[in-house]
């Protein structure tokens, strides 16, 4: 019993000593495992940080490259605009490089297409200061003041009896009626045709059909929506020749080169040059003097009223063509006028530019050759019959037919001289703007 009593403590002590010896080993193992976990967590965190930094750097690089590319495109566009400004002086030019401090540079060239009105092909390369490059090609063309026979900005009111046709010369019936007698407006809602007096659809062409039913050869509306069509059919626009042009047509306001002090009543020959007046009246005897031509015209600027003819009596022919080549034309047009009246370029010798608000044909039986550019004026005929004009007209509107207003009355015939399309507005319009592939190692501004 005593021996058992003595041995138990001994066993208990041994157990205690054994257990005491094992406890430190367990703590060491736990600490080592925790360290591994910490290291693994740190490694994962490091990888996440590195990945985040890499993504951030990649995004930054992408942003920088995108910014450089966008900047290069802006520089290329600046080159196109510079080429347009240079091209207005005519000819072909470039390649020309322009440095833009802090941004980069652009190189551009323009090549004349040799057309009338003038047009050019433009190539421009923009280069960002980091080296990114973009390339633009475009075509530019000079806008004509008289691309159409008759343009009325906000009101195209055409009473019955009007006839608009076109010609290249007076050699044949076909040459005297070429199908380009186009009328145009920015406001299709105000385009109207009359059907009183002398007719619903005056015969303005006879070579291709016996009795055409249209007073004009075609209609252009400067609005690409096409939601409101102009009147068409007999007595109005030919249904197969209605054109919609995008946007509005911007007529530049004539710049008066000086201050007018007097008005003009022209009854004697005019010499080539530029003249400035308040009001202008053109009467018989006002002819084109020696040396006047399309290339050396008479330019008359007016700030007030422009009037062709005067009174209510018969005015007759004002400045009929005199070149021998035109007088050799034989035959007549559908109205009985001599073919010599269809002299190409003759009407371009007398150009009237007006900032006034009124253009009037006053008198009966007027035959007149010239062009009138008056984008703020109302065109009227005082209901005078049998007026014929060889040339082109640009006005703000035509007066409506009523008892209180003048109108484009019966028997007004406008014969559009197609050579007038070469008269430039000095404004250049970009067409076919497009970006082209640009190899960074060989991005040329001289080859397509």
Tell me, briefly, the overall form: elongated
Structural class estimated from helices and strands: alpha/beta
Structural domain count: 2
Order of helices and strands: HEEEEEEEEEEEEEEEEEHEEEEEE
* Largest sheet data: 16 strands, parallel
Average pLDDT: 80
Number of helices: 2
Q: What oligomeric arrangement do these chains adopt?
A: single chain
Low-pLDDT stretches are: 1-23, 196-201, 401-407
Strand content: 25-35%
Percent range of helical residues: 10-25%
Number of strands: 23
Please report the distance between the alpha carbons of the first and last residues. 117 Å
Give me the Rg, rounded: 40 Å
Task: Pick out its properties.
disordered N terminus; about 450 residues; five-stranded antiparallel β-sheet; 23 strands; 16-stranded parallel β-sheet; alpha/beta; about 20% helix
Q: Can you offer a commentary on this structure?
A:
This protein has 448 residues and is α/β, with parallel strands linked by helices. The strands form three sheets. The protein has a 16-stranded parallel β-sheet that branches. The chain has a five-stranded antiparallel β-sheet with strand order 1-2-3-4-23. A two-stranded parallel sheet has the order 6-9. It folds into two domains: 165 residues, no CATH class; 273 residues, no CATH class. It is built from two helices and 23 strands.
